[in-house]
Amino acid sequence: MPGRNLTAIGLACVLANAFSLSAQTRTVLVPRSGSIGSTPTRTSVPPPATLPKAASSPDSNPAVLPVGLPLRIQLDHRYRMRMGAPIAGKLIEPVYSGDHIVLPANIVVVGTISGWQPIAKGTRTWALLDGDVTPLKEPILTFNALRLPGGASLPLTANATERTADVVKMASAPKKQSLVGKAEAQIDAKKQSVEGVIHSSHKSDMALKFVYGQLPYHPQEIWAGTQFDAVLDQPLSVPNPQALKKFPATPPDGHLTPGTLDVRLQNTISSATDKVGDSVSAVLTQPYFNAKKTSVILPTGTSIVGVVTQAKPARALGRNGMLRFAFRQIKLPSGTLENMHGQMTAVEGASGQNLTVDSEGGAKANAGQGKYLAPLLLGVMAGHSLDADQSPIEAGVSSNGFGLVTRIAAFFVVTPTMTASFASYAVAKSITRRWLMPGHNVVFAKNTRMELSVADR
Prior knowledge:
Blueprint: H1 2-24, E1 63-65, E2 70-75, E3 79-80, E4 86-91, E5 95-97, E6 100-103, E7 108-118, H2 121-129, E8 137-147, E9 153-162, E10 166-169, H3 179-198, H4 203-213, E11 221-222, E12 227-232, E13 236-238, E14 259-265, E15 269-270, E16 279-284, E17 288-289, E18 296-298, E19 303-312, E20 322-331, E21 337-349, E22 355-357, E23 362-365, H5 373-384, H6 392-398, H7 404-412, H8 416-436, E24 443-444, E25 449-454
Antiparallel strand pairs: 1-13, 2-4, 2-12, 3-11, 4-7, 5-6, 7-8, 8-9, 9-12, 10-21, 14-16, 14-25, 15-24, 16-19, 17-18, 19-20, 20-21, 20-23, 21-25, 22-23
Helix pairs in contact: 1-5, 1-6, 5-8, 6-7
């Protein structure tokens, strides 16, 4: 009988820890196939897509990539956060100029760790409450060279910020569920998350990150699979052998063919600060062809103008924010404005926001996977911790709150009072974080990628 109790308590502890970590730490998300830009998921750097030999010819007309253009880069190895340490990653999205690719995906980009900055105060506070006294920092990377096919290097100057995110696609409105149904849905979601970790090419890094999350002090790493936006500080001249092979241009002339536009935001928008009527601007990241792909309707770099139509900030008691916007006009290269109706159908969103995109293009933050189940599991363990006959292992399992420190203390000093105190502290944190504090706002940072569906109106 005690063995069965111990097994049940152990299982509950694992689930509670999984939910707790998903709410408390930043998750390294491995890009999935089918996401915006069709991000690859391999860890080794494959050979870059082959450019024509003319790309290295000095007679080729260069394409000039402008200042401020972000290059999406993914690191495939783990790096210790040390000033000046060399790093390498690869482009995970092709870069277009006008109507064709000038930098294909998988080109290797090299640089250094040029500095770091403290994490946000709120994140730092919760880390301390979780027993992590490490002075957590966010890395600043500087990329200085592209390795072109054939071994040639192309110098560049680009500072990078982390932009690891999940891609959220439009979904139908969720059905109303009972509390039990919501708990079951969260269990299913967590199972899928665990399966994703098991099949991930970065599972060793994820396991190590989990261990670090249990320690009061630990080294700081830049994890494999982390993505960065490296923003060009200076114009970049790229060999462009297809400069004289451009597609013919056929501007929309008052009518834009229905389809999907790939864009990135040019300004940050948030449900916390933006109001109805505020402007939203984006720029096309890939050319928009006609149905037969024989001519270009909109070249890369075309500006798109929109407006916020609904904004609801996050509020206390775990109520989350909502943001809705629509794109109304296109600014053609000639300067002419064309009317359009563009609705968001997919967008990159930070994992902590738990975003969904509805059928009208609205983005809403949702409760985390552990909002209902985590406090329940932690409460069960807190109640069991009052048992005076519990073994040292049971005491270690029931103790939560400060990660590995409390578990070791409870294992060697088995007193129901101490174990119950740690367990109750964990319950209080979970309830405060998930039910009492303000919920998540919807925030889309500058350079966020999204897909827009163009309607025939």
